[in-house]
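seq as requested:
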Amino acid sequence: MTRTVYYAATTLDGFLADEHDSLDWLLTQPLEEGGMLDYGSFIGGIGALLMGRTTYEWVLAHGAETGEAWSYTQPTWVMTHREDLPAASEQVRFAAGDVREVHGAMVAAAGDKDVWVVGGGDLAGQLADAGLLDEVLLSIAPVTLGAGRPLLPRRLDLRLTSQGRNGAFLCATYDVVGPRAAPA
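C-alpha coordinates:
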Protein backbone atom coordinates (compact mmCIF):
# COMPACT_ATOMS: atom_id res chain seq x y z
CA MET A 1 0.00 0.00 0.00
CA THR A 2 1.37 3.40 -0.98
CA ARG A 3 2.03 5.70 1.96
CA THR A 4 2.75 9.41 1.93
CA VAL A 5 5.83 9.98 4.08
CA TYR A 6 7.61 13.08 5.29
CA TYR A 7 11.28 12.09 5.51
CA ALA A 8 13.35 14.95 6.85
CA ALA A 9 16.31 15.99 8.89
CA THR A 10 15.71 18.58 11.57
CA THR A 11 17.69 20.48 14.13
CA LEU A 12 17.10 19.78 17.80
CA ASP A 13 15.05 22.99 18.00
CA GLY A 14 12.82 21.95 15.11
CA PHE A 15 14.11 23.70 11.99
CA LEU A 16 14.65 22.29 8.51
CA ALA A 17 16.78 25.18 7.29
CA ASP A 18 18.11 28.40 8.71
CA GLU A 19 16.51 31.80 8.11
CA HIS A 20 18.40 32.03 4.77
CA ASP A 21 17.13 28.60 3.64
CA SER A 22 20.58 27.09 4.09
CA LEU A 23 21.16 23.44 4.96
CA ASP A 24 24.84 23.90 5.79
CA TRP A 25 24.11 22.64 9.33
CA LEU A 26 22.99 19.31 7.87
CA LEU A 27 25.82 18.68 5.45
CA THR A 28 28.47 18.59 8.20
CA GLN A 29 26.84 15.89 10.36
CA PRO A 30 28.23 12.33 10.28
CA LEU A 31 25.95 9.51 9.09
CA GLU A 32 26.46 5.77 8.85
CA GLU A 33 25.57 4.21 5.50
CA GLY A 34 23.10 1.45 6.23
CA GLY A 35 22.15 2.94 9.61
CA MET A 36 18.62 3.79 10.73
CA LEU A 37 16.77 5.99 8.21
CA ASP A 38 19.68 5.65 5.79
CA TYR A 39 18.93 7.57 2.59
CA GLY A 40 20.10 4.76 0.29
CA SER A 41 17.69 2.29 1.86
CA PHE A 42 14.88 4.84 2.01
CA ILE A 43 15.00 6.09 -1.59
CA GLY A 44 14.63 2.56 -2.97
CA GLY A 45 11.07 2.46 -1.63
CA ILE A 46 10.04 5.79 -3.17
CA GLY A 47 7.97 5.94 -6.34
CA ALA A 48 7.16 9.67 -6.50
CA LEU A 49 8.29 12.89 -4.84
CA LEU A 50 6.63 16.11 -3.76
CA MET A 51 8.58 19.22 -2.89
CA GLY A 52 7.97 22.89 -2.37
CA ARG A 53 9.50 25.58 -4.53
CA THR A 54 12.08 26.67 -1.93
CA THR A 55 13.37 23.11 -1.54
CA TYR A 56 13.45 22.63 -5.32
CA GLU A 57 15.40 25.84 -5.82
CA TRP A 58 17.86 24.84 -3.07
CA VAL A 59 18.41 21.43 -4.69
CA LEU A 60 19.05 23.10 -8.07
CA ALA A 61 21.41 25.72 -6.57
CA HIS A 62 23.28 23.10 -4.55
CA GLY A 63 23.69 20.95 -7.66
CA ALA A 64 24.98 23.93 -9.65
CA GLU A 65 27.46 24.74 -6.86
CA THR A 66 28.75 21.19 -6.42
CA GLY A 67 28.41 19.97 -9.99
CA GLU A 68 25.97 17.26 -8.92
CA ALA A 69 23.26 16.34 -11.42
CA TRP A 70 19.58 15.99 -10.56
CA SER A 71 19.58 12.69 -8.70
CA TYR A 72 15.91 11.71 -8.72
CA THR A 73 14.60 9.33 -11.35
CA GLN A 74 11.10 9.26 -9.87
CA PRO A 75 8.31 11.55 -11.05
CA THR A 76 8.58 14.74 -8.99
CA TRP A 77 5.89 17.33 -8.36
CA VAL A 78 7.00 20.83 -7.35
CA MET A 79 4.32 23.00 -5.75
CA THR A 80 4.79 26.57 -6.99
CA HIS A 81 2.97 29.54 -8.44
CA ARG A 82 6.06 30.62 -10.36
CA GLU A 83 6.09 29.86 -14.06
CA ASP A 84 9.75 30.61 -14.76
CA LEU A 85 11.38 27.66 -12.99
CA PRO A 86 13.56 25.36 -15.08
CA ALA A 87 12.67 21.67 -15.10
CA ALA A 88 15.62 19.67 -13.78
CA SER A 89 14.50 16.63 -15.75
CA GLU A 90 11.58 15.45 -17.84
CA GLN A 91 10.27 13.77 -14.66
CA VAL A 92 9.66 17.18 -12.99
CA ARG A 93 6.12 18.54 -13.01
CA PHE A 94 4.97 21.88 -11.63
CA ALA A 95 1.66 22.31 -9.84
CA ALA A 96 -0.13 25.00 -7.88
CA GLY A 97 -3.10 25.08 -5.57
CA ASP A 98 -4.45 22.43 -3.26
CA VAL A 99 -2.14 19.43 -2.68
CA ARG A 100 -5.20 17.16 -2.69
CA GLU A 101 -5.52 17.84 -6.41
CA VAL A 102 -2.11 16.32 -7.23
CA HIS A 103 -1.97 13.67 -4.51
CA GLY A 104 -3.93 11.10 -6.52
CA ALA A 105 -1.59 11.51 -9.51
CA MET A 106 1.44 11.10 -7.25
CA VAL A 107 0.06 7.93 -5.67
CA ALA A 108 -0.77 6.52 -9.12
CA ALA A 109 2.75 7.33 -10.37
CA ALA A 110 4.32 5.74 -7.27
CA GLY A 111 2.76 2.36 -8.05
CA ASP A 112 3.38 0.05 -5.10
CA LYS A 113 6.04 2.39 -3.65
CA ASP A 114 5.67 5.40 -1.35
CA VAL A 115 5.33 9.13 -2.00
CA TRP A 116 8.06 11.23 -0.35
CA VAL A 117 7.35 14.75 0.85
CA VAL A 118 10.90 16.06 0.38
CA GLY A 119 10.46 19.53 1.83
CA GLY A 120 9.04 21.92 3.32
CA GLY A 121 7.31 21.68 6.57
CA ASP A 122 4.31 23.70 5.47
CA LEU A 123 3.78 21.40 2.48
CA ALA A 124 3.85 18.36 4.78
CA GLY A 125 1.41 20.26 6.99
CA GLN A 126 -0.96 20.82 4.08
CA LEU A 127 -1.00 17.10 3.43
CA ALA A 128 -1.61 16.44 7.14
CA ASP A 129 -4.46 18.97 7.13
CA ALA A 130 -6.03 17.03 4.25
CA GLY A 131 -5.59 13.69 6.06
CA LEU A 132 -3.09 12.51 3.41
CA LEU A 133 0.14 12.33 5.45
CA ASP A 134 0.73 8.83 6.80
CA GLU A 135 4.17 8.83 8.36
CA VAL A 136 6.92 11.17 9.59
CA LEU A 137 10.53 9.92 9.49
CA LEU A 138 12.95 12.20 11.31
CA SER A 139 16.69 12.42 11.70
CA ILE A 140 17.33 14.89 14.52
CA ALA A 141 20.74 16.58 14.43
CA PRO A 142 22.64 17.77 17.50
CA VAL A 143 22.40 21.36 16.25
CA THR A 144 20.24 24.34 17.21
CA LEU A 145 19.60 27.33 14.95
CA GLY A 146 17.24 29.49 17.01
CA ALA A 147 15.28 30.47 13.89
CA GLY A 148 14.55 29.26 10.38
CA ARG A 149 12.08 27.09 8.47
CA PRO A 150 10.01 25.05 10.94
CA LEU A 151 9.87 21.28 10.67
CA LEU A 152 6.08 20.97 10.72
CA PRO A 153 4.09 24.08 11.58
CA ARG A 154 0.92 22.23 12.56
CA ARG A 155 -0.68 20.79 15.67
CA LEU A 156 -0.59 17.03 15.14
CA ASP A 157 -0.75 13.91 17.25
CA LEU A 158 1.85 11.34 16.23
CA ARG A 159 2.53 7.78 17.42
CA LEU A 160 6.16 6.74 17.82
CA THR A 161 6.78 3.48 15.97
CA SER A 162 10.58 3.18 16.18
CA GLN A 163 13.65 5.03 17.35
CA GLY A 164 17.39 4.68 17.09
CA ARG A 165 20.61 6.38 16.10
CA ASN A 166 22.54 6.99 12.91
CA GLY A 167 25.90 8.68 13.39
CA ALA A 168 25.26 12.00 15.11
CA PHE A 169 21.51 11.78 14.51
CA LEU A 170 18.73 10.61 16.77
CA CYS A 171 16.21 8.90 14.47
CA ALA A 172 12.50 8.41 15.00
CA THR A 173 9.57 7.23 12.92
CA TYR A 174 5.99 8.21 13.64
CA ASP A 175 2.57 7.35 12.31
CA VAL A 176 0.34 10.39 11.88
CA VAL A 177 -2.66 10.00 14.19
CA GLY A 178 -4.37 13.23 13.17
CA PRO A 179 -4.81 16.88 14.02
CA ARG A 180 -4.33 17.92 17.63
CA ALA A 181 -7.08 20.09 19.05
CA ALA A 182 -6.11 23.57 20.17
CA PRO A 183 -6.09 24.07 23.93
CA ALA A 184 -9.37 25.30 25.37
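The CA atoms of residues 121 and 151 lie 5 Å apart.
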